[in-house]
Write a structure and sequence with these properties.
With 316 residues, the chain is α/β, with parallel strands linked by helices. 31% of the residues lie in helices and 27% in strands. The radius of gyration is 19 Å and the shape is globular.
């Protein structure tokens, strides 16, 4: 089966160059205790395309019994709010016009689960547009390292979680002043406006001067250009910048509460249980672990596959 992804461009693409990754701290992608499973990795030679095109397909009766899934099947495509510039989670390949990564893979697997084939239409979203696009039914779902929060859950519904992460600190490679959370006191710290990073910094680094910027690219640029001393957000997002070879590094230990990434849907839909059943299936059959390995583990040099979170355990 083929992978077909059409992309609606709402923002410019970031130019990135892949480089080797050197991690100086443990990450939630590389747990060292119980719950990890290195034996769940895909066999040698199994590709990203093999994984997404080999995912499970829902029974016709299950799709027909769900109004949201039936509407997606009738349209013949899953309209996804996502990103195009996230190295590990959803990066557009301009030669194929197809996004690849962990989030992209989840969306493509979900489309296969509903449609029997991989057909997605990607519309780039920001932290400011995700809820409105779901509320207007412009997209069927948002899969974009989308942290589950009570405030967001007042406007939209979340399936999942399908991934978890803690926050971390990113600085320039030559920065020796900041090595831990305590060192953020008196420093200018960038984060994404309307993200969980703002509240986290207010709680964990109250003496830092917060520089809230619209998106990841601008927060990263602020550090690179010397307009911010550090950038704090989910460590999974910061890994994208490190892998891209952007002259930055992650310092200190991950901190703060565990961020649960959810799959956003319109609050009036009946999508949540259907999607949670899908997530349960790909976790139980090993597809989730294989996708994690080819999109994150192999690229970051991590061998222990983390235990996926339980769908429905949103923490709300």
């Amino acid at each position: 089966m083929r992978t077909t992804t059409r992309t609606t461009r709402l923002a410019g693409l970031a130019a990135v160059a892949i480089a080797a990754l050197a991690l100086t701290a443990c990450s939630p992608e590389a747990p060292s205790g119980d719950g990890s499973d290195s034996s769940a990795a895909p066999e040698a030679g199994v590709t990203y395309e093999d994984i997404v095109n080999g995912g499970p397909v829902a029974d016709d009766a299950d799709v027909e019994a769900n109004a949201w899934a039936s509407a997606v099947r009738e349209a013949g495509v899953l309209k996804v709010g996502g990103t195009e510039t996230s190295e590990l989670f959803s990066l557009l390949d301009p030669t194929t016009n197809t996004a690849k990564g962990f989030d992209a893979g989840i969306s493509q697997l979900l489309s296969r689960y509903i449609l029997g084939d991989v057909k997605t239409e990607l519309q780039q979203v920001t932290v400011d547009t995700r809820e409105s696009l779901l509320e207007s039914n412009t997209v069927d779902t948002v899969i974009a390292t989308y942290s589950i929060t009570p405030a967001r859950a007042e406007r939209i519904a979340f399936a999942g979680p399908y991934y978890t992460s803690q926050a971390a600190i990113l600085v320039k490679k030559d920065n020796t002043d900041i090595t831990s959370l305590a060192d953020l006191a008196g420093k200018t710290v960038a984060t994404q406006a309307n993200s969980t990073g703002v509240a986290l910094l207010e709680a964990e680094a109250p003496e830092a001067e917060i520089l809230a910027l619209p998106d990841h690219a601008q927060a990263l640029a602020a550090v690179q250009q010397g307009n911010a001393d550090a950038y704090v957000i989910d460590q999974t997002l910061l890994l994208n910048a490190v892998i891209a070879g952007d002259d930055v590094k992650i310092v200190g230990e991950p901190f703060g509460p565990e961020d649960r990434y959810g799959i956003g849907v319109n609050k009036t839909s009946d999508a949540v249980d259907f999607i949670n059943d899908f997530l349960t299936k790909i976790e139980e059959d090993g597809t989730w672990a294989k996708l994690w390995t080819v999109t994150i583990g192999d690229r970051a040099g991590l061998t222990d596959v983390p235990q996926p979170p339980t769908p429905g355990d949103t923490g709300l």
